[in-house]
UniProtKB/TrEMBL annotation:
Membrane topology designation: Multi-pass membrane protein
Transmembrane intervals: 94-113, 119-137, 158-177, 197-215, 350-372, 378-405, 687-704, 710-728
Family: Belongs to the cation transport ATPase (P-type) (TC 3.A.3) family. Type IB subfamily.
Domain of life, per lineage: Bacteria
Protein's UniProt keywords contain Transmembrane helix: yes
Name used for this protein in its record: Cu+-exporting ATPase
Pfam families per record: E1-E2_ATPase (PF00122), HMA (PF00403), Hydrolase (PF00702)
Location within or outside the cell: Cell membrane
Native source species: Saccharothrix longispora
């Protein structure tokens, strides 16, 4: 549970929901409370609730319970056994119903097998199927009726009960109870008299719907398996080191920030941290989807949940518990799965009013056929078919199941989708703005050349440049510091450090004001200016160093293009996107990089604040803009873009920024993110189309008396299973990032 100044947020686990109408009803009840904003997800069985600080969670729970459902505030991630128990119960009900119901259906369909008193035998078996196996439908319908509401269970229960009671009436008071009575099976309701029974309808509908519920429960569990697997990656215990280096095995909950712990080969790294001793290859595939292990050594960051594939590592914990990357990833995926796309909100509204409308259509069907002079049992059967065929179950499952599978698969590939609305954005985007440093290039430039000014030694230049750049976190500064440190050793401390974004840094060293900046801000002599221009034409970044305004020399830094960037640009073009390279570097450097990766349009020399203006300009031109950046310096542009893709590589801010977070620093993952998001959206729309089409096509057939209720039940169950299995196809999505 989180809190702000005036509002709090909680996710309630909801039990007892059996269809989208139930979710819609719970949502309406919660939203009627003053100051409460709730979103209920049928597939995840959760309610995300924002509520005023003065309100208690117990009030929310009691509101849900008053509506006939269960609610609780989960303190940890949902676990499998609860879903397993539900699926096991449904499996038992399906098994018993099928075992007892099959003879009833067969006897009703094959007159030659109808032995004397077969109808009474069928009544005994059907009674168990209808009232014992099908009890969850009737119980839910009764609970809803007590609160003046109706859901899908209302339709099912009414259809089954009406068919059953009509059969009892025909057996006890009509002609159907006579020994030796026989009748055949028809795909449409029979225009008969009280000599017919409809026990096969009551039994068949119950069996098919229970079967659909069971398959649905199993599929939902599989759909959420990716998230469950992600959350289960954390280590259970860890070898903590004391000051003398002795290991003590403790539970992972005992870890604190700053604690040192050992990771042996083959063990999972318990939490996020920095390697302080040893080197090894770390398998990050479970967290980022990256297949090749990464070599790490002293000073490198490691992520909890990844596997130490080589030697022994000693790691200092930098974040624990809910602050770890793995925990935040799981939280983001859960939030995305609990949200609703606009298209699903429309479906939910339709589902909410659908049941009352269907009840009205069923009543009109009954009255219409009676007024047309058809027998009562024919009119009743047609009305029952209307009730059964109209259940909006598939509508309620269309979006949540696709989101479950799509976002879960994305998490496996290192792609975190923040919410369903992001899916719509990926479809509309036509322009993608690529940040150069850290996105298209490696982001870890290295010092490649040192050009001292006349009268200045190489060591003097490196010492001054390394010292003044040391406090800066810019990648170019880091390259200068690494290069200088390697050559001149320990760097001196500076005073009065200041950084001007997009220009450079300055500080006082040994009483002199030293500046490291772009060449254009340094007032260089002719020979150094020419050297700087030559280096920049080659795509390198040049740092000019001055002391009290006197030039000390130039440092040349090169940031290599990532091996996959050129292919990623081609793939983005294939998706219909126009790539633009955006950078704070000068145009010469930017165009050199752009030419290498195949980008035609370049916007260079842009300060961090100016990147937002570039995005706004593109949007003003009518473009729908995506920005791919490292999630820290590019945060404003990511927020302003229609779609922000934050390239993470483990940085804290990257996890929080952007609409899509790419845990791995490979531009091809951005391509996979857009492909997966678009495919998930296509799946959702396909699901909704078939769910609507099924209802639209089935209702008139049923009302016109052209559909046997048992077939309607089978079709309804099939539609739900189809929607879920169609969503499960997203599990087979294959990324091109490898």
């Amino acid at each position: 549970m989180t809190s702000t100044e005036t509002r709090r947020h909680v996710e309630l686990a909801i039990t007892g929901m059996t269809c989208a109408s139930c979710a819609s009803r719970v949502e309406r009840k919660l939203n009627k409370l003053d100051g409460v904003t709730a979103s209920v997800n049928y597939a995840t069985e959760k309610a995300g609730v924002d509520f005023p600080v003065g309100m208690a969670v117990a009030d929310l729970v009691s509101t849900v319970e008053a509506a006939g459902y269960g609610a609780s505030a989960p303190t940890r991630a949902p676990e499998g056994p609860v879903e397993d128990d539900h699926a096991a119960e449904l499996r038992l009900r399906v098994g018993v119903a099928a075992f007892l119901g099959a003879p009833v259906v067969v006897l009703s369909m094959v007159p030659a097998w109808q032995f004397p008193a077969w109808q009474w035998f069928s009544l005994a078996s059907a009674s168990v199927v209808v009232w014992v196996c099908g009890w969850p439908f009737h119980r839910a319908a009764a609970v809803n009726a007590r609160h003046g509401a109706s859901t899908m269970d209302t339709l099912v229960s009414m259809g089954v009960v009406v068919a059953y009671l009509w059969s009892v009436y025909a057996l006890v008071l009509g002609e159907a109870g006579e020994l030796g009575m026989r009748h055949g099976f028809s795909l449409v309701p029979r225009p008969s008299t009280t000599g017919d029974v409809y026990l096969e309808v009551a039994v068949g509908v119950t069996v098919f719907l229970l079967l659909g519920r069971w398959l649905e429960a199993r599929a939902k569990r599989r759909a959420g398996a990716a998230l469950a697997a992600l959350l289960a990656l954390g280590a259970k215990d860890v070898a903590v080191l004391d000051e003398d280096g002795r290991e003590t095995r403790v539970g992972v909950d005992a870890l604190r920030t700053g604690t040192r712990f050992a990771v042996r080969p083959g063990e999972r790294i318990a939490t996020d941290g920095v390697v302080v001793e040893g080197s090894s290859a770390v398998d990050r595939s479970a967290v980022t989807g990256e297949s090749a292990p990464e070599e790490v050594g002293v000073g490198d960051r490691v992520v909890g949940g990844t596997v130490n594939a080589g030697g022994r590592l000693v790691v200092r914990a930098t974040s624990v518990g809910a602050d770890t990357q793995l925990a935040r990833m799981g939280k983001l995926v859960e939030q995305a799965q609990s949200g609703k796309a606009d298209v699903q909100r429309l479906a939910d509204r339709v589902s909410g009013v659908f049941v009352p409308v269907v009840l009205g259509i069923a009543a009109l069907t009954l009255a219409g056929w009676l007024l047309a002079g058809r027998p009562l049992e024919f009119a009743v059967t047609a009305a029952v078919a209307v009730l059964v065929i109209a259940c909006p179950c598939a509508l309620g499952l269309a979006t949540p199941t696709a989101l479950l599978v799509g976002t879960g698969r994305g998490a496996q590939l290192g792609i975190l989708v923040k919410g369903p609305e992001v899916l719509e954005s990926t479809r509309r985007v036509d322009t993608v703005v690529l940040d150069k440093t850290g996105t298209v290039t490696t982001g870890r430039p290295t010092l490649v050349d040192v050009l001292p000014a006349e009268g200045v030694t190489r060591a003097e230049l490196l010492r001054a440049a390394g010292a003044v750049e040391h406090p800066s976190e810019h990648p170019v500064a880091a390259a200068v510091v690494r290069g200088a440190g390697a050559e001149v050793g320990e760097l001196p401390a500076v005073e009065d450090f200041a950084s001007t974004p997009g220009v450079g840094v300055t500080a006082v060293l040994d009483g002199r004001r030293v500046t490291a900046s772009r060449p254009g801000h340094a007032g260089l002599p002719e020979d150094l200016a020419a050297a700087a221009a030559e280096a920049e034409r080659g795509g390198r970044t040049v740092v000019a160093v001055t002391a009290d305004g006197r030039p000390l020399g130039l440092l040349t830094v090169a940031d290599e293009v990532k091996p996959t960037s050129a292919r990623a640009v081609r793939e983005l073009r294939a998706l219909g996107l126009t790539p633009i390279l955006l950078t704070g570097d000068n145009e010469v450097v930017a165009r050199a990089v752009a030419a290498e990766v195949g980008v035609d349009e370049v916007v260079a020399g842009v300060l961090p604040a100016g990147k937002v203006a570039v995005v706004e300009r593109l949007q003003a031109e009518g473009r729908v803009v995506a920005v791919v950046g490292d999630g820290v310096n590019d945060a404003p542009a990511l927020a302003k873009a229609d779609l922000g893709l934050a390239v993470g590589t483990g940085a804290d801010a990257a996890i929080e920024a952007g609409d899509l977070t790419l845990v791995r620093g490979d531009l091809l993952v951005a391509v996979d993110a857009i492909r997966l998001s678009r495919r998930t959206l296509r799946t959702i729309k396909g699901n909704l189309f078939w769910a609507f089409a099924y209802n639209v096509a089935g209702l008139p057939l049923a009302a016109l008396g052209l559909l046997n209720p048992m077939l309607a039940g089978a079709a309804m169950a099939f539609s739900s299973v189809f929607v879920v299995t169609n969503s499960l196809r997203l599990r087979g999505f294959r990324g091109i990032a490898g």
